[in-house]
Amino acid sequence: MSFWFTVIRQVGRNLRMTWGSQIMTLLTVSLSVLIFAFFYLIYTNMLHFGDKLGNDLSLIVYLEEEPVPEMQQQLISKIKAFDDVEEIRFISRAQAYQRFASQLGKNQDVLNDIPKDFLPPSIEVVPMKNLRSLNQVKLFSAYLARLPGTTKVQYGQDWVERFYYFTKLLSIIVLLSGTLLILTTIFMVAYTIRLTILGRQAELELLKLVGATNNYIRTPFLLEGLFQGILGSSLGIASLFVLFQWIKLHFSGPGFLNLFEFSFFSPMVGLTIIGVSILLCTLGSYSTMQKFLRI
Amino acid sequence: MSKTAETMIEMIKVSKIYPPDVVALRDISISIDVGEMFFIIGMSGAGKTTLLKLLCSMDSPSKGLIEIGGKSINQLKGSKLARLRQKIGVAYQDFKLLTDRTTAENIAISMEVSYKKPQMIRNRVRTLLEQLDLADKHDTITGELSRGEQQRVALARAIANSPTMILVDEPTGNLDATTTERVMQLLTNCNKAGATVVIATHDQSLYQHTSHRVMELRKGQLHALAETGGKTS
Ligand SMILES: Nc1ncnc2c1ncn2[C@@H]1O[C@H](COP(=O)(O)OP(=O)(O)OP(=O)(O)O)[C@@H](O)[C@H]1O
Ligand SMILES: [Mg+2]
Asked: For site-directed labelling of B52, which of A83, A279, B32, B134 has its Cα 20 to 30 A away?
């Protein structure tokens, strides 16, 4: 108990001595956590959104003519030869017409003069969930296009592709800001701890002479790093949360953001980010101590 | 003191050579019993401080063996060294006070490192300050104290943690006769309570009438010249 009492008192002394740079470090840590968490939040939401889109993803294969049942079996086995699929639906000219008509609703009369078989027959292929990554969808569609009797394959190419590149870019930004987070926390914390150690050199020397154990000397500095980590990352996450709520409040209503239905991290993810930051900060203080305390 | 007293300090053929070739101590051999009070005298530059530094393992000998309480301290490191130092109180010649801290804080340091209870530390500091006539300096920054006052604070820090071995380097250099008397009384009390006390000094008044062993260092060599009776061992 007296151990923690003396340790906490030393931490207090350290903080008082270098409070200026302590605050700077704290801000840097929380800012890097904020930046990282911000991009990570967007990234996870995009992935989530992509998941939802992927659920609706289907490839439409247009055919030259309506396949007879025997031909249908052949096509099915050909399609399945590439990969297992969730579902295969044949859509005849008549069904296509019906669908189109019901989509038009009240304006159906425009179809009056048009023959009922003007729409081509098609196959709707719903791929397995694991086939969602763009590369495979692309390969799959190329494969389908080469089947005999097909005219073209459609799956919203442009859109899927753009989305794919966007998430790719986001993941790179997340990685970069993650690296930034790691570097700033470790280096800034290491730097302030170094300042404290240099400022207390005489005292640390004396402590060693009167028989302070290494733990006695080290623990306050480790705690300092720990506090920086806890405070800095909590502050970062908290300000992101506030920012998130603010954006939600001001940009909700019919519009772009409603399409996405943004959601905040689960508490688990937030805690993990905080935990990792704490670890990094402690690591930073530990490495400086090894260098400057020489104990 | 019984004749079968254990040995506290054992030095066998200890030499200390500072680079490049300053011989501060040469072939020192001596044993000091547990509970003994021991004076080392000698001119300035004779090597007194060097000897004490070796005893508290602040420095290591160039040659020879040093044992404290039966264990060699030559290779001591880490927590073992820390624990040894907690049991040795040293009043340095240059005080080594933290001049931006109060008197009380300076004295408390030696007790804090062995995790004494805050209440106990407070009491001990107060008693010591009273015994050394410094009661009114409790909250004074030590940088603002006079040399003599600083000297007493350094001594108080050395004995605060009730160490089993006390090393004092020139304890009365800046003190008047009365205060010297007080300081010596305090050290004698510690000694009576069982601590081994080694005092390095060139103040004749300290050892003139003592019944304890006195040895003189001359150019790094020990001479048992000033032995005054009273103690046979
Ligand atoms: N760190 C050092 N490096 C080099 N030489 C040193 C060092 N410390 C002490 N010496 C030398 O060792 C010799 C003994 O010094 P020491 O400090 O032990 O003397 P002392 O007996 O304590 O003297 P005083 O009574 O003045 O305090 C001196 O010649 C001194 O110059
Ligand atoms: Mg000296």
From this structure: B134
pLDDT of residue B167: 95
Hey, what amino acid is at A244?
Answer: F
Using the Cβ of B157 and the Cβ atoms of chain A, whether some distance falls under 8 Å is answered with yes
For the CA of B51, the nearest atom of ligand 1: 18
What's the alpha-carbon Rg for chain B, to the nearest Å? Answer: 17
In angstroms, the CA A283 to CA B200 distance is 45
Q: What is the DSSP string of A180-205?
A: HHHHHHHHHHHHHHHHHHHHTHHHHH
Strand partners, B157: none
Range of the domain at B183: 35-49+85-224
Whether the per-residue pLDDT at B231 is higher than 60: the answer is no
Q: What is the mean pLDDT of residues A228-255?
A: 84
B18 lines ligand 1 (CB under 6 A): yes
Which ligand has an atom closest to residue B26 CA?
1
What CATH number does residue B124 fall under? Answer: 3.40.50.300
Cut 0.80: pTM above it? no
Please state which CATH class domain A58-154 belongs to. Answer: alpha beta
Q: In chain A, where are the structural domains located? A: 2-52+167-292, 58-154
Q: What is the pLDDT of residues A161-199, one digit of tens each?
A: 777 788 888 889 889 988 988 888 888 888 888 888 888
Residues on A contacting B at a C-beta cutoff of 8 Å: 2-3, 5-6, 202-203, 206-214, 216
Strand-pairing partners, residue A59, are A125
A242 CA to centre of own chain: 19
Report the C-alpha gap between A293 and B167 in whole angstroms. Answer: 26
With bands split at pLDDT 50, 70 and 90, how would you rate the model's confidence at B142?
very high
Provide the token pair at B96.
């080594």
